[in-house]
Design a protein that fits this description.
five-stranded antiparallel beta sheet, globular, alpha+beta, about 30% helix, Uridine Diphospho-n-acetylenolpyruvylglucosamine Reductase, domain 3, Vanillyl-alcohol Oxidase, Chain A, domain 3
Length: about 475
Amino acid sequence: MVGAVVVGFDLSTRAWATAGERAGRLARGFPIFDGVLRTDTLARDGAADDFGHLVHRRPLAVLEPGSVDDIVRLIRFARRWGIGVAPRGQGHASYGQAQVDAGVVIDMGLLSDVHDVADATADVDAGVTWRTLLDRTLERGLTPPTLTDYQDLSIGGTLSLGGIGGAGFRYGAQVDNVVALEVVTGEGRLVRCSRSRRPHLFDAVLAGLGQCAVITRASVGLRPAPDELRVFDLVYGDLQTFSEDSRTVLRDARFDTLQGLVVPGFAGGWAYILEATSSSGRSDGELLAQLRDIRQAAVIASMSYRSFALRLDPIVEQQRQAGTWEMPHPWLAVWLPDDQAVSFAGRVLSALTVDDTGGGPILLYPTRSAPFRQPLLRTPTSELMWQFAILRTALPHTAVSADDMVQGNRRLFEQAQAVGGLQYPNGAIPLTRADWVQHFGEAWPAFVRAKRRHDPAGILTPGQDIFGYARSSAIRSNRRR
């Protein structure tokens, strides 16, 4: 049920006016859309929630675009009248990042065409999921260089964030493998950009958290995909040995992908799993050489590349059936410099319980920093850096509430900052503007300039409040027009 047709924006009530309503002073220039601007309760409530189930900012409307031109029309109108706008892909944010209070959410999932798959690139709409793209590229024996662990995320969403995975030590993040973008800026301009064409806009959009433009289309790089992989799960009983072996295999690049998990130990405490894959012809003995006392604990399996990429599907299905997928997810993810990572993780894990995580996974693994080149994807400057993520689920039967977990995230974030760590901004951490300034560091001045240039009214993706001062002043200014 879409509801009544929207015919304008009432400046006196700051609400959309529908046919048959008595409206006050209507804003000039209301656009006619190819798609639908929905104001019904179902659409608005759906856009006021996300995977985190922690933040609920209710928009005034949801745009279901029938074309990219609809996004241009909406943003031009919204800029003029100070209306916040946020693009939403698959709704997998954990802390309201793609929500907008009293504004408009754009359902990007309706723009989901794979336009072309060539030998080195794929041209896709921003609403396409990585699963859909992978299915198309594997038909030609190709794959995106870096895949996240979960493939039902939109391409536009992860490119706005960064997009990290186990192949990052070779290829960087997903944003490091983008050839070109089509975007709609906060001025309502539809433009293409790349490293050679409007490079400042290109750099401001990739990992730019939706602050300067809405990604509508992307040309992403591809590489040959192996048919099969050998998957190694190497189990360790102590953090020090796990970390030393992780560095060894990372530095000599003997595996295709490398990640690590922290899991409850059989005798209490924690155990550590080094998950690695290989498509090479090297023997298991060669691949496990110089690693200590793990051969009997090494689980080795062969599977297709696609099966490995979709290895979380059964786990997600179990969570859906158990109802935990719909529970709050106060996630935390930070990057740690190599010289601090093991001691920091050790201190945190020594005080962490399974109740503190709700049984959610804990990620801990090193990667090389050199392939991570996009300036707004902030990482430590050390040669090696570690991803440390506590992917919490707030379960109703435990003593640790969702609020407790969010507050715990804030404390751990501050502790990580103190040792040179940086957040990977997909988590549930209450942040101030000062936190964002510190996060972006030397990239902050250029980011501010890009925001002022490409979103001068401060309307885009206000949920993270990175530029809250610009947003509030823009509304005050536009209300006086």
